[in-house]
Specification:
Layout (H helix, E strand, L loop, with lengths): L27 E3 L8 E3 L6 E3 L5 E4 L10 E3 L8 E10 L3 H6 L1 E7 L12 E2 L1 E2 L6 E8 L7 E10 L5 E5 L5 E5 L19 E6 L2 E6 L4 E4 L4 H4 L7 E7 L5 H14 L4 E5 L4 H10 L5 H6 L2 E5 L13 E2 L6 H11 L9 E5 L10 H17 L3 E6 L5 H10 L2 E10 L2 E11 L9 E6 L3 E6 L5
Parallel strand pairs: 5-13, 17-22, 17-23, 18-19, 18-21, 19-20, 21-22
Antiparallel strand pairs: 1-2, 3-6, 4-6, 6-10, 7-8, 7-11, 9-10, 11-12, 11-13, 14-15, 15-16, 16-26, 23-24, 24-25, 25-26
């Protein structure tokens, strides 16, 4: 605001991007004078939080993330340290972060705050957003065996509690020497009879004795493609219910975790539903949107006869020129290099525009994203014209085919990498499941070593 004091009849304009006014709240305007600055008092919330949202990491003293996340009670100093790391964003900038506090409290298996680990002030390790905070707890050898919970509280410069983290996540275990514990906060399959677990570099695989296969986390997808899909055009094909949208969302979430800007074009559902659906799979994107890493382009609301609430939207998905312009406008300024575009889906375009226009649009957008070092990922279903699908496959650098089918009355899903330009990859079908809170889980015949 201008340093000039406000006087009667003065008009002011206020824009607030990273805050919200609670229902029933009152905003006061305090008039100043020539010797006192005028102030606008605005109640705010959600201007500080974790990045990514609701995410912290538990590490050992060397900075390793133990899998499963447990520590031995007989560990000798200085190896008896549990290190907690959190990344924090603040819409009010560095000064607010430095003047406020981020506190950590550890709760024992009985739910009680641990003595010596209650309201520990975490140390700030970086001076740019997202700000890295670290705290450590040295546990005594007589600590209670079991699962411990990590709570995080953020207090602003005025002493207000502005954010609290209570999970999910942020758990670890303390176990006696030589004990292999029931893993903490992991896949639910361990409660099924006949299932065991082994640790690996790429995650945790769980052996299913009856089917002689392993349950592998989503990172197993990079094994199928012999590495990350860094650039070019990717086509994800599949019938209804095969998991095309979830695959694209999880690929996007992996990009976001690596700090890569992403654009999600939604033509099959409201962006709000996309967000909530991702959250149910454990993919919380709120923090990435607040930091500017993720942008939604709404291509659905207008088709559903509703006004869009997104910054970027189109009045008709059949207007590919406007859609292309909106995508270009949504590229993050100053850091568009390496941006990934996720377009879900091409199917609604089929009834709105000519087949050759769809091919030209995909080719143009794919070339644009590749030109800035990123990739363009498109999903499409069987209702797309076969000739269009063939042309899209020819121009794509990678083609993923997915299928939902029934086997002995049980619904199953599988996928395969049908094409991957200039890279050797695993061929053949790979069976997978979709689990709430976990997303895609692969059934692998051989664990990654």
């Amino acid at each position: 605001m201008s340093p000039t004091p406000l006087i009667e009849q003065t008009s002011i304009a206020i824009e607030i991007y990273a805050s919200s006014v609670p229902p029933g709240a009152t905003i006061w305007l305090r008039w100043g004078a020539s010797s006192a600055r005028s102030l606008v008092v605005v109640p705010m919330s959600d201007y500080e939080g974790l990045f990514p949202a609701n995410t912290i990491t538990v590490q050992d003293r060397a900075g390793n993330i133990p899998i499963p996340p447990y520590f031995y009670l007989d560990a000798a100093p200085p190896n008896n340290y549990v290190v907690v790391k959190a990344f924090v964003f603040s819409a009010l900038g560095t000064t607010e972060i430095q003047q406020g506090r981020v506190n950590m409290t550890i709760h024992d298996p009985n739910g009680r705050p641990v003595r010596g680990a209650t309201n520990l002030t975490m140390s700030i390790a970086t001076s740019t957003s997202p700000y890295e905070f670290i705290a450590a707890w040295s546990y005594p050898s007589n600590s209670t065996q079991g699962t411990y919970l990590v709570y995080i509280d953020m207090v602003d410069s005025q002493g207000n509690l502005v954010y609290s983290f209570r999970g999910p996540g942020g758990t670890f275990g303390l176990v006696p020497p030589g004990f292999v514990p029931f893993p903490y906060n992991i896949l639910p399959y361990l409660v099924v009879a006949g299932v065991g677990g082994i640790g690996t570099v790429g995650g945790v695989f769980y052996y299913r004795r009856r089917s002689k296969s392993y349950l592998a986390p989503f990172g197993h997808f990079n094994t199928l493609t012999a590495g990350e899909l860094d650039g070019g055009t990717v086509s994800i094909e599949g019938n209804t219910g095969s998991g095309k949208t979830i695959l694209s969302e999880q690929l996007m979430f992996e990009d976001l975790k690596r700090g890569r800007p992403c654009i999600f074009v939604s033509t099959s559902d409201f962006p709000s539903n996309v967000r909530s659906g991702m959250k149910s799979m454990g993919l919380e994107v709120k923090g990435y949107e607040q930091s500017g890493l993720l942008t939604f382009v709404d291509g659905y609301s207008a088709e559903a006869g509703q006004e869009s609430t997104e910054k970027f939207s189109v009045p008709s998905i059949g207007d590919l020129t406007t859609l292309g312009m909106k995508i270009s406008s949504s590229l993050p300024p100053q850091r568009s290099k390496g941006t990934s575009l996720y377009f879900d889906s091409l199917v609604p375009l089929a009834s709105k525009t000519k087949p050759e226009s769809i091919v030209s649009f995909v080719q143009s957008i794919g070339a644009k994203m590749k030109g800035i070092g990123g990739k363009a990922v498109f999903t499409l279903g069987p209702s797309v014209d076969p000739m269009v699908q063939k042309q899209l496959e020819d121009m794509s650098d990678c083609v993923v085919q997915m299928e939902a089918f029934e086997e002995r009355g049980v619904r199953r899903r599988r996928l395969k990498i049908a094409k991957l330009r200039a890279r050797r990859h695993q061929e053949g079908w790979n069976v997978f499941a979709i689990e709430d809170g976990k997303g895609i889980i692969f059934y692998s015949k051989k664990p990654k070593t």
